[in-house]
Design goal:
The chain has 313 residues and is an alpha/beta fold. It is built from 11 helices and 13 strands. It binds adenosine-5'-triphosphate and magnesium ion.
């Protein structure tokens, strides 16, 4: 397996008009994104995600550091660009065009013509489920439909690498899931995806690895499985009532998802799992399952950013 994106000490300082107004947007980022993976690129507003992406695309230039795309450092060359599809943050396309006209325009930018162009428009419309609406004006598209056309635009040259800046922002849960399913299918086809997003659950559900950026510095990077620690145990029980629930709570157990006599107990750090099970037995609760609870990506994010903020102070 080869490396799709490789950066070494990538740094961007936006120069201010006056002395002391420079913005250090990215500091010495050394990052490898492997071919065939979905990489979730995370960080709070202003942490440097879009800046990184623009440098990967050759839209702005690094102050320092190097970039290789599929081993090639000539990232501004047409040969490299053909292999990258890009969905910009808050992509906007003219309202008076039809979906297929947008794709035709971008396809031509990539040098596609005639029947090749027609075939690619057909294939990408199929991929994003927009065949039925391709002749309609963008003016009449919903947000989800616009996002699908944006994705189709990024796919028009059949690129090996997709760089998507917030692909699911502002979409309803169904539309988000549909976009996620499309992205997972693209990975199955062997594409590499770098996705910047604030939708942490989406990222958790689809990424192989994630990196978290804060204030221009990469704070942590790894596979979702590695990074999300399994710190707590959960016990699913039957036979709980208000009295038992409040007693368990007083012993440091969090009672969750209670419906009737059924609930999930989160065993915190104050009690061992053995003691918790003993306690359940003494209350004649029926045990359905005992399982480790994995931290969510949101919890990891809050933990990592919290620590970075504390360091900065
Ligand atoms: N053209 C520019 N000139 C000056 N400063 C800039 C420019 N573009 C971005 N910045 C600054 O660089 C920093 C990183 O911005 P960037 O857009 O990369 O963040 P981001 O992680 O994409 O944030 P968001 O989640 O809000 O999209 C911010 O402090 C921003 O104000
Ligand atoms: Mg951004």
């Amino acid at each position: 397996m080869s490396t799709a994106i490789s950066t070494q000490n990538l740094t961007k300082i936006y120069e201010g008009a006056l002395r002391g107004q420079d913005v250090h947007a990215l500091n010495e980022l050394s990052l490898d994104v492997e071919e065939g993976e979905i990489f979730g690129y995370l960080g709070p507003n202003g942490s440097g995600k879009t800046t990184t992406i623009k440098m990967l695309l050759g839209l702005i230039f690094p102050t320092q550091g190097t970039i290789k795309i599929f081993g090639n450092s000539a990232i501004s060359s047409a040969a490299v660009k053909k292999n990258i599809g890009y969905l910009p943050e808050g992509a906007y396309y003219p309202d008076f065009l039809r979906g297929e006209e947008i794709l035709s325009y971008y396809g031509k930018l990539y040098g596609l013509r005639g029947s090749d162009l027609k075939k690619r428009i057909d294939a990408t419309m199929d991929m994003v489920g927009m065949q039925h609406a391709r002749k309609r004006l963008l003016r009449g598209y919903s947000k989800g439909m616009r996002q699908r056309i944006g994705l189709a635009q990024a796919l028009i040259s059949d690129p090996k690498l997709l760089i998507l800046d917030e692909p699911t922002t502002g979409l309803d849960p169904i539309a988000r899931k549909e976009i996620r399913d499309i992205l997972l299918r693209l990975r199955e086809e062997g594409k590499t995806l770098l996705i910047s997003s604030h939708e942490l659950l989406e990222v958790e559900l689809m990424s192989n690895r994630v990196g978290i950026l804060y204030n221009g510095t990469l704070q942590t990077i790894g596979s979702v499985d590695e990074l999300l620690v399994k710190r707590e145990m959960t016990v699913s029980v039957d036979g709980i009532d208000d009295g038992i629930a409040s007693e368990l709570s007083s012993r440091g157990i969090t009672v969750e998802d209670r419906t009737g006599g059924r609930a999930t107990l989160r065993i915190g750090s104050t009690l061992s799992i053995y003691d918790a099970i003993e306690l359940c037995k003494s209350k004649s609760l029926e045990l359905n399952s005992v399982a480790p609870r994995r931290e969510t990506l949101e919890e990891l994010f809050v933990r990592v950013i919290g620590a970075a903020e504390a360091d900065r102070r």
